Amino acid sequence: MRATAREIEVASHTKSAMDTDIQSNHCTAREEGLSFASYDAYIPHVLDVAARLRLKMRERKLYTNNSDGGGCGGPDAHEMLWSSHPFAHPSTFDTLAMDPALRDGIRADLLRFVRRREHYTRAGRAWKRGYLLHGPPGTGKTSLIAAIANLLEFDIYDLELTTVQSNTDLRRLLACTRPKSVIVVEDIDCSLGFLDRTTSTDDAERRDNAPPRHLTMSRFPPMGGGPAGMYGEKISLVVRLIVFTTNHVDRLDPALLRPGRMDRKIELGYCKGPALRVLAKNYLGDGDFELTTNGGHRYEELVGEAERLLEEVQLTPADVAEVFMGCDGDGDLAALQKLVDDLSSKRVVQKCAASDV
């Protein structure tokens, strides 16, 4: 197969980076009086460095499943089943507007997961982890998924289940995903019709209008907890994360939520003080407002007032971001004042509604 100009360029950059890293390691070893016992020890080290460099230099992708995809058996099966687009979302764990303890816990859990290959291999289990993200719309579920992909340097597979006709098709799609990927199923309550079957009254209509349950959750690696090799590959050597999202966790079938179905269930809530400060930094800058004592004092006054109001008024991070975006160019203090005014108005409406009950 003839190499394209782009492939030649990437290969050239990769070789240059590898040569630099190898020379660096050579010098360090010589300076510290270290040496490799033989090429048998040194060559694996070089190959590992090359693999890590290739991973960092590659363009990451966002994949979506094709509704008319073919079978997974030939060399072009992946391209037949999945369409790709460049993935360049700016979200990181430092820019997430969420509770700091929850954010740090998720990051630690992810880093621990990707380091535990030997644990999964020894246990004979698939190297996978499943998250269920739930909360009202606008609480940051999509941003968290992007931050996870950026942290782990994984591709994203956006799996649209409404186009999948059978368990066989689902298994084919999953088998054709690549290592180091996040498989995302958004709005799982809408995609699978996994509504709570124990409810009645108003939920009956939702059940009648739900998509047919032509798929079973056991086909997902995190759901069935199956052994390594169940997807026709050495899956214990292939790291994957699967993330489900829903705005209405209360509508899901309890069987979906029982222990063992999901590794972690993460609730994303309304905006509070710490999230507000992250959003202010993201949208208003890091202290680039009036650099005077009075300006700084007023900034803290407004942030403090907004924090107090957010304890009484439910506003999502997306709502706060929209206020800040609408004040672009007006200055930081004007944006914060607009947020405080909006929150004060909502609090008045909220109190009036409560008094009418």
From TrEMBL:
Residues 201-211 have a biased composition (Basic and acidic residues). Residues 127-272 form the AAA+ ATPase domain. Residues 201-221 are annotated as: Disordered. Pfam families: AAA (PF00004), AAA_lid_At3g28540 (PF25568). Transmembrane segments: none annotated. Signal peptide: none annotated. GO terms for molecular function: ATP binding; ATP hydrolysis activity. InterPro entries: AAA+_ATPase, At3g28540-like_C, ATPase_AAA_core, Mitochondrial_chaperone_BCS1, P-loop_NTPase. Belongs to the AAA ATPase family. BCS1 subfamily. This is AAA+ ATPase domain-containing protein. It comes from Sorghum bicolor (Sorghum).
